[in-house]
Every structure is written in structure tokens, then in C-alpha cells.
TrEMBL record:
Toxic component of a toxin-antitoxin (TA) system. An RNase. Mg(2+) binds at residues 4, 93. This is Ribonuclease VapC. Its cofactor is Mg(2+). It is an enzyme of class 3 (hydrolase).
């Protein structure tokens, strides 16, 4: 399961829905990871040592997925297709979707509207 920034931000804010969903994933022994791009998005928004420490605690047990050339190529196809339909999504979201598709992973997000535009991408919310 590839976690989107909305999910990590909600975890950092102690959102009970996000916490419950992470517990469910742990109970099911579902591996969780997040993109290096998500690390960037969330990291930019962290304010102060307390939030940074909480972020480190939450993410230490998770795998950070690098962005590969194949991910970028897949994201390019995704974004060009969506642009041709007048339904483009944010560039980082396209790259995250490309990463998920290349690894045959679902994306866990509250940003369902954008990610559901991507063909063949499994999108889960909480």
C-alpha cells in the first residue's frame, strides 16, 4: 500500500480514521510505503521540532519508495492521457500514481477525486 501525503499528514495530526486504517493494515500484515515525493510534500509542511519528531516516529518503520525512470515514464503517460481528456492532475500526484502502478500497489489517500482519474490505479480511502 502506497501512502499519499494526505494520509501521512492525517497521521501526524492524530486523525482517528487514519490511525484506525493504519492499525487495520498492520493487523492484515499489509506492507506500507510512501514515495520520496510524499516525503518531500509532507516535509515541507512540517513546522517545529515536535512535528518533525512525530514524522520520524511514524515513518521509521515504513519503506520510502524512490522515484525511478520507469515511474516517471508511467507518470508521463498518465498525465498526457489525462490532459488530453481535460482532466489533468497535479504533477506530484501523477508521479505517485506512476510509482504505484509500476509496483502494482494501491494508493491510500483522501485525495480520491484526482487519483480515481488514473486508469487501472486502485485507490483506497479511509
Amino acid at each position: 500500500m502506497l501512502l499519499d501525503s494526505t494520509f501521512l499528514i492525517d497521521l501526524l495530526n492524530c486523525d482517528t480514521d487514519a490511525i484506525d486504517r493504519l492499525d487495520d493494515l498492520a493487523d492484515a500484515a499489509t506492507p506500507v510505503s510512501f514515495s520520496v515525493l510524499t516525503a518531500f510534500e509532507v516535509g515541507v509542511g512540517l513546522s517545529g521540532a515536535t512535528q518533525r519528531e512525530r514524522y520520524d516516529r511514524v515513518t521509521d518503520a515504513m519503506t520510502v519508495m524512490p522515484l525511478t525512470h520507469a515511474d516517471a515514464q508511467r507518470a508521463t503517460v498518465i498525465q498526457r492521457t489525462l490532459q488530453s481528456q481535460g482532466a489533468a492532475i497535479g504533477s506530484i500526484d501523477a508521479l505517485i500514481a506512476g510509482t504505484a502502478l509500476e509496483r502494482d500497489e494501491a494508493v491510500l489517500t483522501r485525495n480520491v477525486d484526482e487519483f480515481e482519474r488514473v486508469a487501472d490505479l486502485v485507490v483506497e480511502s479511509y
